[in-house]
Amino acid sequence: HELLWRPAALQTALFTSYGTDYSFLAEMVAGSPAAARRRGVTVVDNYDHHRTPAGLDEHTYTVHNAAVRANFSVVLPPFFSDDTAAADRTRVHHGTMHPKMWLLEFSEGGACGSGFLRLAISSANLGRYDAKINNQVWACDFVRAQDAVEAACALGVSQLKAELKERRVDAAGCSEKAELAERLVEARRADSAGFGADLLFFVERLVGRAAPELFRQWEALLSRYDLTPPAGTHLIFSAPGRYSGPEAERYGLRALQRHLKVLSDRPVAQRPTAVEYACSSLGQLDDILQPLLGVRPNYKQAPRMAVRGAFLEGLHKPPHVKGAAARLVWPSLTASLPAFARGKGMLTIGGGKNTMTGPSEFKSQQLKACMAHNIAADPRRSATLHHVKMAAGIVRPLQRGGPQREVAPLCAWVYAGSHNLSGAAWGKMEAATGSDDESGDEDEEFVVMSYEVGVLLLPPEPRPFALPWVTAAAPYDPTEVKPFSTSRYLAILRGRDSRAWDLRDNRMTVEEVTGEVRRQWERLRDGAGGAGLGRGEAAGSTGAVVALPEAATLPPPL
């Protein structure tokens, strides 16, 4: 609701989500000019794309529909083209309509008071439940193109010079403030040309193929704004298809890797020494662990996956540092107990079937080399579902000084968006259509199955970022310290997975297992002393844990 600022000034909006609660969205835009007029609100959906054909629906949700009382133009983008092979059409059933992006045009406010365009990219879906779980949000406001110089003039001279220096522009010849402002606007536009083009291209992929006339409206709208985010900001998006050559560099992990290449030219002291990646869902790992994290599943090199991990681009790993340079940050089962004890949001999202399922026993074996604890940086967030999708190239982890004094992690880059750990989301290399498995690199294609979007923040120099988990994330072996998953927790309560707590004894009864769960929780609570971060033993290892003073009892056995 806060992102919508003043609904009375909201003229035009575009929303994307993994499923949409239309009554919730109607409440958010209620009273806005956008909701009252035709084509004022565009919703890109197609959650059930393998059953619902692509197209445009402008008849279901209108001001005459008592459930919403708003006009929604619902765009259902295609997942394949007319000439896509039948086998590929079947495969994209595994893909999802997963981006979480908002474009909001306001008729007032902004740096010049004449209106602005707000772009928000997050991990939060359009539903009430997402306000109750851990999500990240990135937002950026853009002034009208005609107001760009005036908006820059609102900055102080020292601010203008500082940003010009950051963008490596020589301002020595500028004697007047107006000259500095004009030079800065020129520099911003030159640096951000790729960002604006990528945003327009992604909106075209979302809207243009199913509703070309509606896309032309958005194309005209975007052209009116100065799409110049902070220096080093890049859009990372995915869209279903098979790509080769330069076209493949636009999508997913290939785009991420392309942008991160600039790190190799920076001083060693400014390059990341480790990468930590948090997400809320895991797909098939064989075709993504190596190209993204640089980790071989089960220490074996997957076919067609000899490329360096995209997250490792530009990384400088000190010789004395052992283990994987890129780690998957995932909560252990024990660290998640406060959520169960308080009965909040961890079991399912919104009480439905969507869960943070977690790695199976087989996937835990594959993740042995790269798993790390996800401990909520804010203790108040320890009792809710972890739904963020973020990665950070960390130069220096969290530094603790005196009491109540902490210095945020210094990061060379941060990714924040909708991409979970899967080849469907990030993309993967496959044999080109019609080639055999023995073909060379020239016969490979980059395959993407899902719509996704995120933002890569790659500032000219490392900066402190407030990450939602504690860094440096402590590694753990997921075959010994069990990762959180809904099914694993329920199996423990039902007595079907006693090995999750004691690898030496698989004969524990339901009561014994449940009792052990309770004892572990009590130990965590006592070890933390009800004061947030503390120390405690959990599932055979010692590590930082989070507990809340008002901790309730665990639910009874099922």
TrEMBL record:
Subcellular location: Nucleus
GO cellular component labels: nucleus
Domain of life: Eukaryota
Major localisation: nucleus
GO BP term (any one): DNA repair
Cross-referenced InterPro entries: SAP_dom_sf, Tdp1
Residues carrying the site annotation Interaction with DNA: 422
Active site: 387
Molecular-function GO term, any one: 3'-tyrosyl-DNA phosphodiesterase activity
Keywords for the protein's UniProt record, in alphabetical order: DNA damage, DNA repair, Exonuclease, Hydrolase, Nuclease, Nucleus
Binding site for substrate: 389
Similarity comment: family membership: Belongs to the tyrosyl-DNA phosphodiesterase family.
Designated name of the protein: Uncharacterized protein
Lineage, highest ranks first: Eukaryota, Haptista, Haptophyta, Prymnesiophyceae, Isochrysidales
